[in-house]
Amino acid sequence: MHVPRPSLARSAGTFLAATLFVSGCIPIDLRDLLEDEQQGVSVLMLLETDGREIGLGDELMGALSASDFTSADGSYLEAWSFEGRQGQTVSVDLISSDFDAYLYVVGPGLDAPLRDDDSGGACHARIDFTVLEPGTFHIVASALSPDMAGTYRLRLSDSPQLTTGVSCGGVDTSSLMGFPTRGSLDVGRTEYGTLMGSERSIEDGRPVHAWSLVGTAGETMQVTLRSDDFDAYLYLAGPGLVEALTDDDGAGDLNSQITVTFPATGTYVVGASMLSAGERGAYSLAVNRPLQMSELRFDGRALSVGSTSYGTLTDLDPVIEGRPVQAWSFRGEAGQRITVDLISEDFDSYLHLIGPGISSPMTNDDGAGEFNSRIEVTLPESGLFRVIASSLGGDHGSYEIQVY
Fold it and tell me: Is a pLDDT exceeding 50 seen at residue 66?
């Protein structure tokens, strides 16, 4: 019968009790224990390597599993030995597609354990160091979170290797750029498609349809993916983008939206997908220039001081920064002091005010108490002002606006 390794924290506690005369044996989380430099070096050097040795220039396979030592928080730990020569420059990479890698190096000449999470690109770990004193080092492969397990590669080089440049959780642009496209997207036009669930995936089994989009450096565009059948998820990759841009609910409800200022001129790829694998359904995909608040239509909505007006936000309203918006107009005089309240029992209100003499939109979330908004202002100039009613979370529902 297989017997799991003991917790390193318990082994460390016993070791410390014997050497430092600490009474008792209390499990301590490994990373807390590492805050004490001397203790941390001793603890990690306790790990058995079980014959795992690695040298400069090697790239070897390993695996974290329940048979390994664990820290008190449940993270698996597997140690390798490395014989270092004084003056050597060493780059250690811990690479895994199964877990978020976490790496330690301890040994002679190091006052404290070296540690790293994501310096190797993506969710890989990297530690670069110079051997100050010759001897045996322990390179400890681990994972960022408890119970993460799986295979990994451990690589030792005399200089750092190239990385993908993708952050942990990011999407490599090359993956999406290699997809065959279904067609091109043009500004002001809506395209339609249906995801069947069997399409190629970039991550987490999500099916993806790729569309091409030509962008000009410095130009800003807004890409919107909508579906009544699934929770939309949107990707955008292309020249000048180190990793793909992504969005889940930026267009409100379960629809996605990415606003991008193209860093370079060229062909970009838009990926229409869904948040959860295993679904299917129809979608629409549109590209437009971002709508400015000063461009919003009033559609007959007008306010007057001393009155209350009523409206309803719906999924047919324009969306700015992921929030549905409705514009109201009122005429004001320079020096006039006004208060505008946006009140709703259906959503957390969010209020904007723009107009003559106001250099940037005034905004407010909860100034009127609870989830209601309030803007108080002395108008700097006379003219037509815009009050923009919106919801903080992108929700819809009824509201009232009071001006006094």
Answer: yes
